[in-house]
Amino acid sequence: ANFLHDPRNPFHLIFNMLIFWFAGRELESMYGRPNFLRFYGYACAFSMTVWFLAERAMNPGAGAIAMGASGAVMATMML
């Protein structure tokens, strides 16, 4: 679900990808493509896991769906 976005809000996708492009280019040049892709994959998995656990803790039984790469993009910005 990290590579999907809500089609009703294209500006969210545009903003995420713009930030990822600016930050990702720099980090890829610093760490190399394989290490950066590994980091991004782990950031995707970690952010979705944290979201899932927080959602279940705050809204037990709710059927919410997570879409988007905001967590992984934020991790990229933090790095």
Please, could you describe this protein's structure?
The two termini are 22 Å apart. Helix 1 packs parallel to helix 3 and helix 2 packs across helix 3 (70-78). Helices cover 72% and strands 0% of the residues. With 79 residues, the chain is mainly α. The chain has helices at residues 10-31, 33-58, 70-78.
Total of DSSP H or I helical runs spanning 4+ residues: 3
Helix fraction, binned, reads: over 70%
> How much strand?
under 5%
Q: Low-confidence spans: pLDDT under 50, at least 5 residues?
A: none
What's the gyration radius in Å? 14 Å
**Shape, please?**
globular
Order of helices and strands: HHH
What composes the largest sheet?
Answer: none
Overall structural class, as computed from helix and strand content, comes to mainly alpha
Number of strands: 0
Defining traits:
79 residues, single chain, mainly alpha, 3 helices, 72% helix
Concise description?
The protein is mainly α and 79 residues long. It contains three helices and no strands.
How are the secondary structure elements laid out?
Elements: H1 10-31, H2 33-58, H3 70-78
Helix pairs in contact: 1-2, 1-3, 2-3
